Description:
The protein contains six helices and seven strands, in the order ααβαβαββαβαββ. It is α/β, with parallel strands linked by helices.
Amino acid sequence: MDFFDSAYKGTPPWDIGRPQKVFVELMRDGEISGSVLDIGCGTGEHALFFAGEGYEVWGIDSAPLAIQKAREKAAGRGLSVHFLVMNALELTRLNRKFDTATDSGLFHTLSDEDRPVFVDALAAVLSPGGRYFMLCFSDLEPAGYGPRRITEREIRESFRDGWTINYIRPATFESRTRAEGPRAWLSSISRS
């Protein structure tokens, strides 16, 4: 059993029982549109939020236990979301396109070698003009607890070919373990 699947035996610090505020604000500001793919969906709070707002939503995660919990939440809330156990590097297996993709905490877990594989897979499933919204740990967060920190430059370099970066702005990654939450980047990136 891998780290992420075992983390879902309990409640991991990133599973706050509701969507991150930045994604709620994106929806309220009209930035979420069309069909939505939530990549690294965990127990499904973002996917379920978007479904509750009337969007067609798919959620994928590599942790079977997270997907099981997401499906149970969907059933309990009477919401329809397509939840699948899947590696984010294999998005082409979905064999379809989406208008919006969201990522709350996946990108910063990728190795240097996996990043270009993920970006290519993401390009294959986002419609031209489709937008990818990514919340990741920022290099402005002091070293210590938590995942790898990502620089703004790393984001720009990862998405330089075939993408338009609409913005990269400071944000907070809400957590169950820290009231103020770690510093993060929120990026809006469009597929050219």
